[in-house]
Amino acid sequence: MKFIKWLLALVVTLILLVTVYLTVFFDPNDFKPEIVDAVKKQTGRELVIADDLSWTFFPVIGINLGGVSLSNPEGFTPKAMLEVNKAVAEVALMPLFSQQIEIAELSLDGATINLVTRKNGTNSFDGLSGDNSKKAATPAAETSSNAKLNDINIGGISITNTQINMIDEAKKQTQVFTLKSFTLGEFALEQFAPIAFEFSATMPDMTVSSEGKGELKLSRDFTQLVVNGLKIDTVVEGESIPNKKLETSINLATQIALDKQQLSVDIAQLTAASITAAGKVGVNYATKIPQINADFQVGDIDLDTLLPKTETAAATEQAPAASTPAVEPDLSALKQLDVKLKLTVKSIKVANLSTQNWLMDVGIKNGVLDLTKLNADLYQGKLLVSAQVDARQAVASYQFDKKVTGVQIRPLLKDAADVDLLAGTANFDVKGKGRSLIPEQLKKNLLANGHFDINDGALYGVNIPQMIRSAQAKLKGDLSPETKEERKTDFSSLTGSFSLDNGVATNPDLAMSSPLLRLAGKGTANLLTEALDYRLTTSLVSSLKGQGGSDKDALAGIDIPLAITGTFQKPEYALDTKALLNNQLKEETDKAKEKLKDSLLKKLGGF
């Protein structure tokens, strides 16, 4: 017992002697000029320590700092790059003797950082490394590599009221980032410690505010960092933001293998506006280009609610087109990506077009984007797409293969383009390729071939039997008003193939059949002007009875020319009555000849 008492007395005496020595004979303010000179020599910057340095003692030892500032390079505005109102660092004394670091408190309050980029490209960091930075770094690195710590304990870290001003003189823009608070609770190796933060940012076109909390753990060998239950809520506001305000929330856990330079994130829930999602992300950042693998499951997405048509947008659409020529989108960033993404989406609605059950596989590597698979349910049918975009050249190239099966074409056309033209069950396939992603150039440069067939449908906007009946009546001299009937022509099948070149789709073999009539011909559809130009031939195969006709039609079997012109939005249909008359006269003449021939044969006794 006496030994222990003497040992404790010795320790207390030692601490008292150290305290007396530091306070009486070792004034930290004596070193301020040396610190200022060292910073000046190393960086060329002015370091100012306005307040006196002061010691803290048992049970901890530390230094209080205040009124600290570090200047920007000469000629910069603001003059100060860093200003600190107050900083406190306190370390427990006794654990140091057993190679343990126990930090009682680390706090920083009222820091302001001004990062300036001037018009000539120079910035606030220029010259900070100094000429001797590499030489000075070597012994420090060796010391740190040889040092061994048994444990680290931190009573707490608090950073408050820290502001970062990013000033771009060329763009005349200032972005302000404010860390209102960051706290780390009691921390020890192999134990979870609570963390929390509150952050905001002001940029030229938006403001951001965010807060979060969770817990983290660091392994004893410093190779594994784990963050659990991290929940971050963010609000973004600005004129360019959908509905001028976007609220997001994310709940995640992450593991970082510091030795292997690998990161994995498990996102339990992500919400943005009305969209919900969950998924996993893995990152290997040990390679030159980080490798990213992601797998997400997303709920319903209604892009129409996120991108409302504002009055400003409407006015922009009505305004004359800008004379500035369109430029190719810059896809050079794809060269710096190595990404594999699997995505499932419950439903997507965009431009009033609805799709469900998306399944998509995408890869990006070496400047090439590969959409290896995209499946979706589309208006009671199926959509299957594969595509590739090659951005290795300044003007990107692309190719695609698209198939649509069993789709109800009428509601699709009405929702997608407000066109009420066709109805029926459609099957469609097209393969294409091209260069340039400028919208107008895309239409001009696209080369494609495809085929379509539509079954049990109708052609809206025209009643071909009624048109034929009306033309027939006029040929007979009946000029009475036409009866009003629904402008619709039913058919059992509508088929054709097409090719696309220079913005014009050419359809050489359009064919339509129904119990009443047959229609065949060819034509073009201009994707640039939306102009239609079709020349078709219609022939009746039976009576128009049931369509308002007689039991036996004089035009049955006669080819009747039909023209389709106008635009996608307003197609126009017209019969060639002159050709119709000529065909009917020819038919009547042929019948008269046959009748005369039969009469002569009878008179000649059958010879």
What's the helical proportion of residues?
A: 10-25%
The share of residues in extended strands comes to over 45%
Taking all Cα atoms into account, the compactness measure Rg is 40 Å
Mean pLDDT, all residues: 80
Span from first to last CA? 152 Å
Helix/strand class:
alpha+beta
Uncertain segments are 20-25, 131-149, 310-322, 546-552
Shape: elongated
Report the major sheet: 29 strands, mixed
Counting DSSP E segments of at least 2 residues, the number of strands comes to: 29
Task: Characterize the structure shown.
There is one protein chain. The protein contains 9 helices and 29 strands. With 607 residues, it is an alpha+beta fold. It has a 29-stranded mixed β-sheet that branches. The N and C termini lie far apart (152 Å). Residues 20-25, 131-149, 310-322 and 546-552 have low confidence and may be disordered.
Features:
607 residues; alpha+beta; 29-stranded mixed β-sheet; 9 helices; 29 strands; 19% helix
Describe the protein's topology:
Layout: H1 2-25, H2 32-43, E1 47-49, E2 54-56, E3 60-71, E4 80-92, E5 100-117, H3 133-146, E6 151-154, E7 157-168, E8 173-184, E9 187-188, E10 193-203, E11 206-218, E12 224-237, E13 245-257, E14 262-272, E15 275-284, E16 291-302, H4 303-306, H5 311-318, E17 338-350, E18 353-365, E19 368-378, E20 381-390, E21 397-408, H6 409-417, E22 422-435, H7 439-445, E23 447-460, H8 464-475, E24 488-501, E25 504-513, E26 517-526, E27 532-540, E28 559-566, E29 571-575, H9 577-603
Parallel strand pairs: 5-6, 5-7, 16-17
Antiparallel strand pairs: 1-3, 2-3, 3-4, 4-5, 6-9, 7-8, 8-10, 10-11, 11-12, 12-13, 13-14, 14-15, 15-16, 17-18, 18-19, 19-20, 20-21, 21-22, 22-23, 23-24, 24-25, 25-26, 26-27, 27-28, 28-29
